[in-house]
Fold:
Amino acid sequence: MDERRYRVGEFATLTGVSIRTLHHYDQLGLLRPAEHSEAGYRLYSERDLLRLQQILTLRYLGFALKQIGPLLDRPNFDLVASLCVQQVALRQRIGELQHIEGVLRELMRRRLASGQWEWELVAQASADVQASLQQKGDNVSEYYSEEQMKQALEKVGQQVSPAEVQQAEEEWTALVHDVRASRQLDPSDPRAQALADRWNALTAALYQSFKGDPTLMATIGRNYDQGAYASIPDAPTPEDFAFIAAVNQARGDTGKAGSSGG
Structure:
């Protein structure tokens, strides 16, 4: 079945990207139209829609245009794996924005209640926005370094299907909620031990997904230790890790993954 072709104006209207930007991407070799008409008009294909989506999302996540082209053009680039990694990074961005919105909402609430600005909260709002701007400039590079992201794309594409990624996310979310509702349990309680079993199993699956890559896992652990994921509601917290570590220690499973650090 032949793919539909779009003239540049149609493509611009469809995607919300200006004609000028599309011309710029063409000149850079970043997004060349599938073909040209006999009259010389640019004609974009449906596959070009996928290419543009990748460019725009990676741009939003902090990649420079000069980085995006080589990444997308790599022989072993995996589009599905790329979408999985982008989904994780965007979830982190959503958490950051929700945190900033909460600070601003509280700032306005106090202003309306007292008629005065609380300068400490104003400063906090500024600091949070600035931190988010800095992270946006290098979002994925902090989540994984550029080289580590390449490895992640390869490993996710080779080892984990999109359905498995979604299932793992759902299982982790449910487990974190259960852990937080149970942190008052004694570490020797069978219910606490059952939670640790689930935690250890999911952690082992994560290691398996990345073939136990020590660099990737150390980066994830370091980011947890530094609070990089603190704004994500469903991300495990130091208190969650401490609870699992205590349960594992209580039954002598000191080698289990009950802490974030390496």
Observations:
- The first helix runs from residue 8 to 15.
